[in-house]
Design brief:
The structure is a single chain. The chain has about 500 residues and is α/β, with parallel strands linked by helices. It has two domains: about 240 residues, P-loop containing nucleotide triphosphate hydrolases (Rossmann fold, 3-Layer(aba) Sandwich); about 230 residues, 3-Layer(aba) Sandwich (Rossmann fold). It has 18 helices and 20 strands. The strands form four sheets. The chain has a six-stranded mixed sheet with strand order 6-7-8-3-9-10, with helices on both faces. The chain has a six-stranded mixed sheet with strand order 16-17-18-13-19-20, sandwiched between helices. Helix 11 crosses helix 13 and helix 13 packs parallel to helix 15.
Length: about 500
């Protein structure tokens, strides 16, 4: 019998970036198949190509034994493929029922929407999760008022409502508790018995071995290994996920014994964070590891006042600080570099000068601005990253994406912050610019700046960090120091069960 899905030599380029060079995947009927790999390996891109949301640059897809060319998610749905989105795709203002059947509403006489059928079908779906869904989980409930785990269940039900033959679950269990996960696994086994196939992506290795029949491993945009779950073990899979070659020279920084911390965080909780505590010394680079979306960015945004914590305390150089706004954080001595320049960094329509000057003006409390006095400072900061631009008066939109990112990095380096928060800062810049940037970060550390660093590329994290806190489910699941600062230990901790 032909596989339900065959992905053959799938390739995908985003400009000069190669996201996939050789994606290979074969899924049998009624099979639960794990797709694993470290951050940035290409697994989510491959799944989006299979679901029709991203067009491949090369290779072949075969679905149900026939070649398939997918130009949209509708094309994939027509062939029985459905994708659960890791980043929830729900509409908060709509009800549970309306979200589940959005675009597929039951029709009554005359082709009009049938509200009774909508509610009845939604109740039938919800009944499968009723024992663990919690209070208020009804077809009429507004999604915006649900808890994170309830929203995750809605997203799962939205996929199940399509009655697909192949389902891609990308981190579907990330916001679920253990009781909810066990029930979800029961649903997967029911679907398996009905001949429905599943691609299962999870950062929890115990889940993979509990429910999956086979495992495919990707690394650096290529499929590198495939295993029958019953014939392999956790260590073998982890080693297949890890590249042994170090891409960047390691930084070695010894934290002096008894040195007073620059930053102390105690019991920080908030969006995607649960009781996080740690300290960072002057001159120390503290890495934040783990798979994407485990609370690293939430921690950095909270420390920058962009998403204030609900509980917890932060002290800087021994004094308690309030971080209820970004202005407070900047004046206290925090700097923040985001890899999402469109969302977090750019002042659209403004000049390069205004974009690079913004943080310094807030930090220094300037009410009057003399561009002639400030331009040399900012030009020097931009030059340190080999930024290519026509002049400080040019609009920020005139720069390439990589050069825009260099400007936003220079914005914060110029403030000489006490604490520098790096949220995947090297995304979208070339290797030479990364080397320049990392050299400047090391210089700031040598001058006493405490640095918190999250990167989606494990090689960058390992090269720059003195210690790494590994996050899992919004908590610190482990700490890596000394000889344990290796790709193997980092991947092992990221995919381990929570303590």
């Amino acid at each position: 019998m032909a596989p339900v899905l065959e992905a053959i030599n799938i390739q995908k380029r985003f400009g000069a970036i190669v996201a996939l060079s050789d994606g290979q995947l074969s899924i049998g009927e009624g099979e639960i198949h794990a797709l694993l790999g470290a951050n940035g390996c290409g697994k989510s891109t491959l799944c989006k190509i299979i679901a029709g949301t991203v067009a491949p640059s090369g290779g072949r897809l075969r679905i149900g034994g026939r070649d398939a060319v997918l130009s949209s998610p509708r094309d994939a749905e027509a062939l029985g493929v459905a994708l659960f989105y890791q980043e929830l795709s729900l509409v908060p203002q709509l009800s549970v029922a309306d979200n589940i059947y959005l675009g597929h509403e039951p029709k009554g006489a005359g082709g009009f929407g049938d509200s009774k059928a909508l509610l009845a079908q939604t109740r039938a779906l919800i009944a499968r999760f009723a024992p663990v869904a919690g209070p208020g989980f009804t077809p009429e409930a507004l999604v915006g008022r649900l808890t994170p785990d309830q929203r995750q269940i809605v997203e799962i039900l939205k996929v199940l409502a399509r009655r697909p033959r192949l389902i891609i679950f990308d981190e579907a269990t990330a916001a679920l508790d253990r009781r909810q996960v066990e029930l979800f696994f029961g649903v997967l086994r029911e679907l398996k018995a009905q001949g429905v196939s599943t691609i299962f992506i999870s950062h929890r290795m115990d889940e993979v071995f509990a429910v999956c029949d086979r495992i495919t491993v990707m690394r650096n945009g290529s499929t590198v290994a495939s295993f029958a779950t019953a014939q392999t073990d956790r260590d073998t899979v982890i080693r297949a996920m890890v590249e042994s070659v170090a891409l960047l020279e390691r930084r070695v920084h010894a934290r002096p014994a008894g040195e007073r911390p620059r930053l102390v965080a105690q019991g920080l909780s908030g969006k995607r964070l649960q009781h996080v505590s740690f300290s960072v010394a002057p001159g120390e680079i503290l890495g934040l590891g783990g798979l994407q979306g485990q609370g690293q960015s939430a921690l950095l945004q909270g420390l920058f006042g962009a998403a204030p914590f609900s509980t917890g305390q932060v002290t800087l150089d021994g004094a308690s600080v309030s971080l209820r706004s970004t202005a407070q954080a900047i004046r206290a001595g925090f700097g923040y570099v985001s890899g999402d320049r469109g969302r977090d960094a750019a002042f659209g329509g403004r000049s390069i000068f205004e974009n690079i000057a913004a943080a310094s003006l807030v930090r220094e409390g300037r009410k009057l601005v003399w561009p002639r006095q400030l331009k040399p400072r900012f030009e020097a900061a931009a030059a340190a990253l080999n930024t290519k631009y026509d002049g400080m008066e040019a609009p920020i939109g005139s720069l390439s994406g990589g050069n825009q990112q260099k400007i936003f990095i220079a914005r914060w380096l110029e403030t000489r912050p006490k604490v520098l928060l790096l949220d995947d800062p090297a995304k979208g810049i070339d290797l030479a610019a990364k080397a320049d940037f990392f050299a400047l970060v090391r210089q700031l550390a040598e001058q006493g700046t405490a640095i918190l660093f999250y990167a989606s590329e494990d090689a960058e994290l390992l090269a720059l960090s003195d210690r790494i806190l590994v996050f899992n489910g919004g908590q610190i699941a482990g700490e890596l120091t000394g000889e344990r600062l290796t790709a193997l230990h980092l991947t092992d901790a990221a995919y381990g069960a929570l303590a």
